[in-house]
Structure formats: structure tokens, C-alpha cells
Design goal:
about 290 residues, alpha/beta, eight-stranded mixed β-sheet, two-stranded parallel sheet, about 15% strand, disordered N terminus
Amino acid sequence: MPGQPPQPLPQPQQQPQHQPRRQQLLQGIGLGVCGGLLAWLLLLPLVQRLARPAPLAHVQAAALQTVPNAVSAAPPARSAATPESAPPLQQREFALGQGQPVSPDLRRLVAWVLQSADNGAANFVVVDKKMARLYVFDANARLLAHTPVLLGWARGDSSVPGIAQRPMAQVLPHERTTPAGRFMAVAGHNAAGEDVVWVDHAAAVSMHRLRTNAAHEAKERRVARLASTSAADNRISYGCINVPASFFDAHVRPRFLQQRAPVYVLPEQKRLQQVFPALQHWPANMPNPA
């Protein structure tokens, strides 16, 4: 009304500046629970993945990595020494008698066989084509016996592909080679029923007794060639290794009756490392077998 002082406007009710302590505590708990649930939802896939069992192959691979020098295959029958850890061997000369030198290739190969255990636990045979000789060693590379042998007429270190399928009459003179290399030989029989030791069955190359036939002897003189002191005239066969009959029966055939055993044929044209590549990783001055 006119003449009356205006009424003061109603003031808004003042809120308390601080909430009760209990309400603040409940809000804090609520926020903590929500945060925990959110973190759990984010971490759940990772937890499930970690709890899942690893595949068996991964477990086996991890187990092998924890074992020093672990291998999945069975170890060789005779442990091998590495080039670095090979123990020094006592020097020993092969007792071949006067006039029977031993080639450096033979020494190097036998030393490698001994230190690498390439022969396992088996006796082995080495044929040195340059010397036209055959050597029999025991499992520890000790020389047991040796003899001159007759070899393929032609010089060379490989067999002609498919030569075993051809009749002997069709094998040309330059194809009559004795192949070089490492062969796992085994006792058996040839097409005529004769017991032989197969060196390379696929190429029809075997070790067998020297066959004595009057007609052939007059033409080829195999007995005389074998008795010669020179290796130059010991090349007459079609590729097989002709061994004196008594030596074959006493020292060669018995080694292969129960199991296969290595036969190492040294090359005459190729380098030793070309035929036996493993020798590239071994020192050239390996000690002689002891």
C-alpha cells in the first residue's frame, strides 16, 4: 500500500556448508565399489587368458630350453667329442709293414670317425682307392686287419645313374667305377645266390670274394693283379670290391652279419671334404688314432 515501506524479499534458506560425516562415508564406499567393479571388468579377459593352460607343444619346448644341450632324439651309442673339446690322442703309426704307406686321407678320415663317433658302436671298413687297399677297424678305430683289393676299372668317384638295371655286357669300360662315400653296408646275396656284402645296393656295388676262374684268369689276371705290390694294376672289376676269399670270410663278412656297419670309400678324384662334408668342420691336423 502507498505510504507503507516495502516488505523485504524472502531470503533463500541457507544450506549447511558440510554434509554429515556418515553421508560422506557412504558416498566414498559407493564410489570405491563402482571403481573396483569397473577395474575387474577391464582385467577379466586378461585373467582368463593367463589362467588357461598352455598348449602341450609349448610346454615341451619350454622344458627343452631349460635343460642344457637337450635333444629330442636318442643319443649316439658312443659319445662324440666336439672339435674344441676333443681330448688329445696318443700318436700311433699304423703297423702295415714295409712298403705299405698310409695315405693322409686315411689318417684324417679315421681320426674324424673316432672323435665324432660317426660309426656309433660298430666296427667299420675303409677302402682307400688310391692305395687299392681295404682296412678293417674296431669300434674304437683300432686297426684289425688290411688287405689289397681289386676295384673298378675306371677311375671316378660316382656311379652312372641306372647302371644297376643294365646287363654287365652293356656297361662300358669308362662306366666301371667304384663310388666313393659313406655307405651303411649289409650282408646279403647277389642274383647268383652268392653271399656278398652290399655297399651300394642301388648301384649293384658289393664287396665279395675274389672269384677264381681259369678262363677269366687267363684274360684278366685278377689273382696276379691282387698279388702285385703295385696299386696301379688293381683296377679290373666292374665296380665291385674284390677281396681275397680267406680275408673276406675271416674279417669282412662277419662284421656285417648281425647289423649294418659303415664302409667309407675314399675318393680318388674329388677332395676328401667334397665326399665327406662333415670334415669341413674339423681341424685338418687332427691327431692320429690311438
